[in-house]
Specification:
Elements (H helix, E strand, L loop, with lengths): L2 H10 L4 E2 L6 H19 L6 E5 L8 E6 L5 H13 L24 H11 L6 E2 L7 H9 L3 E8 L2 E9 L1 H16 L7 E5 L1 H8 L9 H12 L3 E6 L1 H6 L5 H10 L5 E2 L19 H14 L10 H16 L4 E3 L3 H5 L1 H6 L5 E2 L1 H10 L1
Parallel strand pairs: 7-8, 7-10, 8-9, 10-11
Antiparallel strand pairs: 1-3, 2-3, 4-6, 5-6
Helix pairs in contact: 1-2, 1-3, 4-6, 8-15, 11-12
């Protein structure tokens, strides 16, 4: 693994500052190579919030600290993913396991491989994996050989064992890709059907906003839709959300924008729905589904909540996405993204941020 890949992996994992081991001249000289690699990564557009600092106590003007405020940029994330896909075994180097009864198997993952990676992603793997463990020692070794797990090999009372197995960045990316493909891949040849949340529409088209997020990613998704790779829809609740905007000029401008998108309906609500726009009359099954979604994203929601109407609209967005059999619900809403795992398990709604959706489409 080259230096820049190793550094990008560290930043992706959450490291925000780089310092020399000490202020001694040998350590400062050694640190300059690392700092210059970070400077190069920033010049390539891979970093977001690059703050280099130089010392002033000597005539050398050496770098003595580099801070990365916001982690990797979109370009950095994409570059790192491309490297990992091109060299899937080049994550943290590990010695091959010495007690494997058969070579690591290539090809598609099987259930046990994914189960072990899912356990590792939750830090639920045992501290020691051997041939009597609840998880397969052989599969654990195969995942280490593939670079998806790290760990130390040692002798135990039951033969060879893996101590402290941990998931690597490569493993997390692989698990995420496999999970999303299981939940989000449509029939072969059918464009992926995406539902955009209201916040995505506002982020993309509100020209007055100085804090809009995911604009680049959303613009790329729109380009994918124009090329026929995906379809993008919005629910009838987007209009309801925008009608609450207190700025009449912006509200009118945003409402005009909605005409560019196909609209899908959700469960009808009196004094909210326009019955000629696609909303449907609710029955017991639809009411149950809505309650299930609300219980996941906003458990215990009461009408006294200051954001009650907005939260109910969020629930209706997700319900409309579900009943219209869309593939991916794209949002920047933190409440919804925090519950993506529960929403995927039941009722089966795949939720992604714009960046995650773009990565998923790129990987297909």
């Amino acid at each position: 693994m080259d230096a820049i890949t190793a550094i990008l992996e560290e930043i992706h994992s959450g490291k925000t500052s780089f310092l020399p081991a000490s202020a001694t001249e040998p350590d400062m000289i050694a640190f300059q190579a690392l700092a210059k690699t970070l400077v190069f990564a920033n010049e390539q557009g891979y970093l977001d919030g690059f703050l280099p600092y130089r010392e002033s106590s000597t005539e050398h003007g050496w770098y003595d600290c580099v801070v990365i405020e916001k982690g990797l940029s979109y370009q950095g994330e994409a570059f790192l993913m491309s490297l990992l896909k091109a060299n899937p075994t080049e994550s943290t180097p590990l010695a091959s396991h010495p007690d494997s009864r058969e070579p690591a198997r290539a090809g598609s993952p099987v259930a046990e491989h994914l189960r072990i990676l899912e356990l590792a992603s939750r830090n639920d793997l045992p501290d020691i994996v051997d041939r009597l463990s609840a998880v397969s020692y052989q599969v654990t070794c195969e995942l280490i050989d593939a670079g998806h797990l790290s760990g130390l090999f040692a002798n135990s009372t039951h033969g060879m064992s893996v101590i402290n197995p941990l998931i690597t960045l490569s493993g997390r990316l692989f698990l995420e890709e496999q999970t999303q493909q299981r939940g989000a891949a449509p029939d072969t040849g059918t464009p992926i059907k995406i539902t955009l949340d209201t916040n995505c529409i506002i982020n993309l088209f509100d020209r007055q906003s100085s804090s809009a997020s995911s604009v680049s990613e959303l613009s790329t998704l729109i380009q994918y839709a124009l090329s026929g790779k995906i379809t993008i829809s919005i629910t009838t609740r987007v209009e309801t959300d925008l009608m609450n905007d207190q700025d009449p000029a912006r509200r009118a401008d945003m409402l005009r924008t909605l005409g560019n998108f196909p609209v899908i309906g959700t469960a009808g609500v009196w004094n909210v729905s326009r019955w000629d726009r696609g909303d449907v009359f609710s029955d017991d099954e639809l009411a149950r589904r809505r309650d299930d979604i609300q219980g996941i994203v906003f458990p215990g929601l009461q009408k006294t909540d200051k954001r009650y109407v907005n939260k109910r609209n969020d629930v209706d967005h997700l319900l409309g996405h579900l009943i219209n059999e869309q593939n991916i619900f794209v949002t920047d809403d933190g409440d919804i993204l925090r519950h993506r795992v529960s929403l995927r398990r039941s009722p089966g709604i795949v939720v992604m941020s714009p960046l995650e959706c773009l990565k998923h489409l790129t990987a297909l």
